[in-house]
Structures are given as structure tokens and as C-alpha cells.
Design brief:
Layout lengths: L13 E2 L35 E2 L9 E2 L1 E6 L7 E8 L10 E6 L5 E3 L7 E8 L2 E8 L2 E5 L5 E5 L8 E8 L4 E7 L11 E8 L5 E6 L22 E6 L5 E5 L4 E5 L6 E5 L7 E2 L9 E5 L5 E5 L9 E8 L4 E9 L12 E4 L5 E4 L5 E5 L5 E7 L4 E9 L10 E7 L2 E7 L8 E7 L6 E7 L4 E6 L5 E7 L5 E4 L3 E2 L2
Parallel strand pairs: 20-24
Antiparallel strand pairs: 1-33, 2-3, 4-28, 5-6, 5-29, 6-7, 8-9, 9-10, 10-11, 12-13, 13-14, 14-15, 16-17, 17-18, 18-19, 21-22, 22-23, 23-24, 25-26, 26-27, 27-28, 30-31, 31-34, 32-33, 32-35, 35-36, 35-37
Length: about 475
């Protein structure tokens, strides 16, 4: 067995055969809420900075996230980022970078072979899954990061639209469909909703907004091709009917999921509700009917003079009035641009807002106190949606290992893309592949942990251990370079 002297740096590592030990407590990060860079200063060229680089996984291209504020009281779980690049040289299919990060902004999982837009944690057949749009269809991936389904439009219609897909309690998918059957070339307009059985692909419901919403409701001119009707979010009301946000009419519609009838309109030119002071909105995204009956949304503002905000409205269905329950203003200087964005209300009442093209996202307490604030490091990056949810990932692929010579010793790098249960890395080393032995245990640190070893060997491997010391997986054997 190789032995070495504990040095500076990773002094929390253990040497020799590991024994059970308690998990290392994480240190809270507390900082001052700082303004993000103004949108106008953000680049649309490919930026060489702002991306993680990993020795063990050089194939991964993962946006870097800087955490500015982190306080107690946030909702539980990881952050699911729909990272988007504004780089002009990328196609629509290449612009999306799904990513899971922890509370410190460190990557937990990123895909090596997929580009995706509108990345979300959802539930399918009673199990947590990951979903995103890619190449005109929706991908569904399980907790082992294996693709289990692809959802496409039916009835001979074209590509699924990027804006939203909702898995229902009935294990069906509500999707949006591009106006143009050729897909994204139409400027991302979507005016048709379909409900598709995920298992069979059968269309159960189809609704074309052009049959129900006329150009007179829109705030942009009608060119005769239906661009005025862009549905940009879907959700279910408590009674199972559909809540749909239409961007250019500045209206949220409740649609009967059986007959297609519009039950009511909130906002816009034909609102069924009186919009009391401060309740009017525009350029809205991510409209959701909450369990308490309120409506939440990311309000981009009707004009550049309006400030973007997270907005919660109360609806009185008898008097047909809507009023502001709470408004969450953008925490930085300037205005974060009238596109994209999301607002999520957690089970404990905290509110997570993606400030869209600013590349910034903030979580507030129910009373409006900023608890968490972060932004992309790269100037070209923006966020379509940011969500927080619990997640347990156990990849099919093994951990990754790489070894690099360092003086008379070596540095062993360990990672396991998407493995959420690893607490400790165990390093095995030896002169031959068949004679490896344990040389040390070291707490996991971020996506990739660098572990110094004082004595160099020719071969190394790593094992991922959970908090109880159980081996979850073993890497292939690697050679020191």
C-alpha cells in the first residue's frame, strides 16, 4: 500500500484504508447582492471565457455560474438551468446548454451529446424525469440520464415549438407546435396546442388559437400569416384545464381542455377581468395558476419604460377583478430585456426568478428578501428558465478519472457526471492494473475533485462513495500522464 505525508491544501483527505466518517458540513456563502452586467453590454459573439474546463471530461461544454448571494431559507434542491448562448455562429439547435448546478453554482450534470432548450424537471409515470426541446421534439430522460421517450407532434403537423412542454398527471404531454411546418424559420411563432399520449404518440386534443383569437386582440400588426399569436407557456389549472400565455396579445387564457372553449381572458384588450392598479402586464412568460388560485408570471413589461418583475395576481371570479398580491422587481440597474424569463413559487413560498437575457437569477423569500442571487460568468449567456427542485441522479456510465504527474507525485482528478449521492472519492493506485490498492479518501469538491498524491504510480482509479461509505461506482483504470 502506498503511503504519503499529508500536505497543505486537501488536508481533509484520509490515507490508507478508509473508515466511516461523518459528512463534512458545507460552509454557507454570504455576499452582498450585486448588479449584473447590463444587457446592452452582453456580447452576441462566441465568448472563450465563462465555460468550465474539466480534465476528466473535456467533452463537456458547461456554462460557468457565479453566486453573488446565498443565505438560509431557500427552497430545497438543485438549480435546473436552461442556458442559452447568443453566439451568432450557432444554429438554433446548438444554442441550448441544459445544466444542473448546486447552491454554490457548481455543475452537477451536463449532457455530452445533447443541446437543449427549456430544460425542466418533471414527473412521468410517478418518477422524476428531465425534459427539454431538441431538434423539433421533446426529450424525456430518467434519473440514470437515459432517454426514455421523445415527444413529437401528431396529425401530420411539423416540429414541436421550443417554448414549453408540460407532462400532465395522466402521463400525456401538452406541447406547442410551430406555425410553419418546417420549424424554427418562422420566428418561433406557435399557435397550436396538442395533447399527446407519450407512450403511443396519439393526439388526444388539438387547439388552434387562430380559430379562437383574432388579430384585433394583438398589439403587433397582422401580416396575414398568424405571427401575432405566439403562445409561450402552458400549465394546468387545478381543475385540469389549460392556462396559456400569448405574448403579443398580452393575455393569459384559460382554455377548456375538452371543448377548446376559452373560459376567460386575463389582461389585454379583451380582458374578462378589471385590472386594478399595477395589475396590467405585457411580454409575459411562464404563467401558472397556483394552488391558492393566484396567477404568477414573469412580466417583461409592456414597453421598455416598464420594469421587468415577477408578478403574482389574485383573481376574483365573481366580481371579475384582478389585483397585485406581490411584485418582485429586478434587483439590478437597467432593464433585463423583453424576452424569455420565468418565475417559480416553491412549496415553502420562496420565489425564484430568471431575469432572462441578463443571465441572472434571484430567489426571494415570501416577504421579498433576496436569499440567493447568481449569474452566468460568460457575457454571451442568458437563461430561458431557471427552476429549483430536488433531484437524485445515478448515472449508468462509471466515474471518470485522470492522472497527471506533479513533481515526484501526481494529481488524480475524479468526477461523475450527474451522480448526486457521492460524498467521498477513494483513490486506488499501483504499478500494474491488477495491483491497485487504496491510497486515500477525499471529500468530493465540486464537479471535479483534484486529489494530490505524493508518490507517483503508473495506474490509478477512483471509487465514488456515499455518506455511509458504500461504494456506488468504480472508474476505469487510467494511466498517469
Amino acid at each position: 500500500m502506498i503511503r504519503e505525508i499529508l500536505g497543505a491544501g486537501p488536508s481533509r483527505c484520509r490515507y490508507g484504508t478508509a473508515k466511516k466518517r461523518s459528512a463534512v458540513a458545507a460552509l454557507a456563502v454570504v455576499a452582498v447582492l450585486v448588479p449584473a452586467s447590463p444587457v446592452a453590454a452582453r456580447s452576441t459573439e462566441c465568448d472563450a471565457t465563462g465555460w468550465h474546463r474539466f480534465v476528466t471530461r473535456p467533452d463537456l461544454r458547461v456554462p460557468d455560474v457565479a453566486v453573488h448571494t446565498s443565505r438560509a431559507g431557500t427552497a430545497a434542491g438543485y438549480l435546473f438551468l436552461s442556458s442559452l448562448s447568443r453566439c451568432r455562429s450557432l444554429t438554433t439547435d446548438e444554442k441550448g446548454f441544459p445544466e444542473i448546478v448546486d447552491a454554490n453554482g457548481q455543475p452537477v450534470w451536463a449532457p455530452s451529446h445533447h443541446h437543449g432548450i427549456d430544460f425542466q424537471p418533471q414527473t412521468y409515470r410517478g418518477h422524476p424525469v428531465l425534459t427539454w426541446w431538441e431538434g423539433g421534439a421533446w426529450t424525456i430522460m430518467d434519473g440514470s440520464y437515459q432517454v426514455i421517450a421523445r415527444v413529437r407532434p401528431g396529425n401530420g403537423l411539423g416540429a414541436a415549438n421550443i417554448h414549453d412542454m408540460v407532462i400532465t398527471p395522466q402521463n400525456t404531454a401538452l406541447i406547442l407546435i410551430y406555425k410553419d411546418p418546417q420549424g424554427p424559420g418562422d420566428g418561433f411563432a406557435a399557435n397550436t396546442i396538442q395533447e399527446v399520449d407519450i407512450g403511443t404518440g396519439r393526439v388526444l386534443f388539438q387547439w388552434n388559437g387562430l380559430d379562437h383569437i383574432g388579430p384585433s386582440e394583438s398589439y403587433i400588426p397582422d401580416t396575414g400569416h398568424g405571427e401575432y399569436l405566439l403562445i409561450n407557456s402552458l400549465s394546468l389549472d387545478g381543475d385540469g384545464n389549460i392556462i396559456a400565455s400569448v405574448l403579443y396579445t398580452r393575455t393569459i387564457y384559460k382554455i377548456d381542455r375538452r371543448t377548446g372553449r376559452i373560459i376567460w381572458r386575463l389582461g389585454g384588450k379583451k380582458s374578462d377581468f378589471t385590472m386594478r392598479r399595477g395589475a396590467s402586464f405585457g411580454g409575459q412568460h411562464d404563467a401558472v395558476r397556483q394552488p391558492d388560485g393566484t396567477i404568477t408570471m414573469y412580466d417583461n413589461g409592456s414597453t421598455p419604460a416598464d420594469a421587468a418583475r415577477g408578478l403574482q395576481l389574485s383573481l376574483d371570479l365573481k366580481s371579475k377583478a384582478a389585483w397585485v398580491v406581490r411584485s418582485y422587481p429586478y434587483p439590478g440597474a437597467g432593464w433585463p430585456d423583453a424576452a424569455l424569463g420565468s418565475m417559480q413559487v416553491s412549496p415553502i413560498g420562496s420565489v425564484l426568478i430568471s431575469w432572462a437575457r441578463s443571465g441572472r437569477f434571484t430567489e426571494y423569500s415570501k416577504s421579498g428578501e433576496p436569499l440567493f442571487d447568481a449569474s452566468y460568468v460568460g457575457r454571451e449567456m442568458e437563461a430561458y428558465r431557471v427552476l429549483r427542485a430536488p433531484w437524485r441522479g445515478m448515472p449508468v456510465e462509471p466515474p471518470a478519472v485522470a492522472g497527471r504527474a506533479a513533481g515526484q507525485g501526481m494529481t488524480v482528478y475524479a468526477s461523475w457526471n450527474g451522480a448526486t449521492e457521492v460524498a467521498t472519492w477513494r483513490v486506488l493506485a499501483g504499478a500494474a492494473p491488477g495491483s491497485l490498492s487504496v491510497v486515500r479518501d477525499c471529500p468530493k469538491s465540486g464537479f471535479e475533485t483534484a486529489i494530490p498524491v505524493k508518490q507517483r504510480t503508473k495506474y490509478v482509479a477512483v471509487q465514488g462513495l456515499d455518506r455511509a461509505g458504500t461504494v456506488l461506482g468504480t472508474s476505469r483504470i487510467g494511466e498517469i500522464r
